[in-house]
Write a structure and sequence with these properties.
Distance between the termini: 72 Å
Oligomer: single chain
Number of strands: 23
Structural class: alpha+beta
């Protein structure tokens, strides 16, 4: 009797455009699976170049008025006294694999992740300490934990320890350029050790090389023009539509020959891994690209021995509390142990050939402080800056600000939401002004903008019954009688539709505090002000 195979979890379709054609996974996944699970095929497989783009996030920070010539205390572009500008935008480089390559990375990521989870389960303290890129289930509901749960666990731990001791110390560490700094030699050894081999087999070796000695193209190089009126221009939509219609797939190029010709003629440039680290008198290639399905498990694998030694020293020996979310490390401990722990962690990071981001490495003390004239006390965060104590400065962790007596959303995250809201209004105002149809009043429809933050409804049980944000429908290419492919639109069936308000309501439910929803009480005022400004 033939047993019907199920599509594996790692067999996920990707919707983005790439230099290789999109795949029909729903109908051809068995063919792809048989190729990817064949080690001989993978050992000789030639990976496509990755596609590179940069996500920029504006960062606001307090200004030293002796150094900068700005009127406001917080700004985005810092104008120095000499007239030059210092931009504070955070750049996050991402690399996307072609569709078939992404399936290969997904398959090997699932194999490595299964072995990695077995290593963590051997030690319960270790298993609890690593949070990022893992599915950790809640005992009561069976659903996966989110960053909200992880943050609450840390803050609850600080509160519990403050009841037992007069002072609780907290250390936060951040690894500078984590993904782009991973040592290739160490990573290869850890990979081989995890799969129980002295050296990587040929198929694993080929996947490892594609992640470390990678090639990539710039997504902006595929645009019609690099810039148009100071802004990025679009892609050649006529060519993309022709490929969809005639070939039946989505892609930037009609074929591999078309892609190679673009490279040979100089229309498209291929770049090499740009990450290097100084070692003595020379430079050594390091780092893996962010954005691959395998990047997350490799990052966790790289710090496996690091996590084990930290748990042994901090959790077991000094009875401390340790959590690592990717490259964000936090330690809760007794004040008497804080200096020794700080030295130990910094030493381990350097032994892993990584660099500490000194600007994000912080020390806090939590203790009871008087906050009113009546002499009442409450648990308060105190930032230690050398010999100076900054009372009330919040501990920032996973997008939350914790002051000891309260928890709220990080202010910069709220600012990001408002900027996104205003940018949508600005874009829609531009479209409204360009509309030359007579007798139609220039207007912006608020209900369309409010898809970002539809207000939740309340059912009789008091649970949040959110109005979900609308998502794009799925587009399928179907061949017609003329031999051409046309688009068939099917409504999306996503189960976990969410928006920013629903996120805040989850924060409220998990923390049991209304402050998260109250933080957005000005949203309607900001929306109305933006509409008035950009339509005038």
């Amino acid at each position: 009797m033939r047993i019907e195979q199920e599509k594996p979890i790692w067999m996920q379709s990707k919707g983005y455009l790439h230099i290789s054609k999109s795949l029909q996974i729903s109908s051809n996944w068995r063919i792809y699976k048989s190729k990817i699970e064949n080690p001989k095929f993978i050992a000789k497989y030639a990976f496509y170049p990755l596609m590179h783009s940069i996500i920029k996030e504006r960062k606001y920070k307090k200004v030293d008025k002796n150094k900068y010539n700005n009127k406001s205390n917080r700004c985005h572009n810092l104008k120095k006294l000499d007239g030059s500008f210092e931009k504070t935008a955070k750049k996050r480089p991402l690399h996307y694999a072609s569709h078939f390559d992404a399936l290969i990375y997904g398959y090997y990521a699932s194999k490595l992740n299964e072995l990695y989870e077995k290593e963590l389960i051997k030690d319960s303290s270790l298993n609890e300490s690593v949070n990022a890129y893992r599915k950790i289930l809640l005992e009561d509901t069976g659903k996966g934990k989110s960053t909200i749960h992880f943050a609450k666990e840390v803050f609850d731990q600080i509160k519990e320890r403050s009841l037992e001791s007069s002072e609780v110390s907290v250390l936060t560490f951040d690894i500078k350029g984590f993904f782009s700094s991973l040592d290739h030699e160490l990573l290869e050894k850890k990979w081989a050790t995890l799969i129980g081999e002295k050296e990587l087999p040929n198929d694993h070796k080929n996947v490892f090389k594609s992640c470390t000695d990678f090639r990539y193209i710039l997504k902006d190089d595929l645009r019609i023009n690099t810039k148009k009126n100071g802004k990025r221009s679009g892609f050649d939509e006529k060519k993309l539509a022709k490929i969809r219609r005639e070939k039946g797939f989505k892609c930037f190029f009609e074929s591999n020959i078309d892609f190679r010709n673009a490279v040979k003629t100089g229309k498209l440039r291929i770049y090499k891994n740009p990450f290097f680290q100084p070692r003595g008198d020379s430079k050594v290639q390091v780092g893996i690209p962010q954005g691959l399905p395998i990047s997350a498990v490799l990052a966790n694998l790289y710090l496996l021995d690091f996590d084990k030694r930290i748990v042994d020293y901090i959790v077991k020996e000094h009875k401390g509390f340790y959590r690592r979310y990717s490259d964000d490390i936090i330690v809760v401990c007794n004040s008497s142990d804080v200096e020794n722990i700080k030295i130990f962690v910094e030493k381990l990071i350097l032994e892993s050939n990584l660099e500490i981001s000194s600007s994000k490495t912080e020390q806090f003390t939590f203790r009871q402080e008087i906050y009113n004239d009546a002499g009442d006390k409450r648990l308060t965060s105190i930032k230690i800056m050398g010999f100076e104590e900054k009372i009330g400065s919040p501990l920032i962790y996973l997008g939350f600000e914790f002051r000891g007596y309260s928890v709220c959303i990080k202010s910069t995250n709220l600012a990001k939401f408002y900027r996104r809201l205003i940018s949508i209004v600005k874009r829609r105002a531009g479209r409204a002004k360009n509309n030359k149809t007579p007798y139609i009043k220039i207007a912006i429809f608020k209900n369309q903008v409010k898809k970002l933050y539809k207000k939740p409804l309340r059912d009789l049980d008091g649970e949040d019954n959110e109005l979900k944000q609308s998502f794009r429908n799925k587009v399928f290419l179907v061949e017609n009688n003329k031999g051409e492919f046309s688009s068939i639109v099917k409504s999306s069936n996503y189960q976990n539709k969410s928006n920013y308000i629903s996120y805040l309501n989850r924060c409220k439910k998990i923390f049991g505090d209304d402050i998260f929803v109250r933080q957005l009480r000005k949203k309607d005022h900001i929306l109305n002000s933006a509409i008035k400004k950009h339509l005038s």
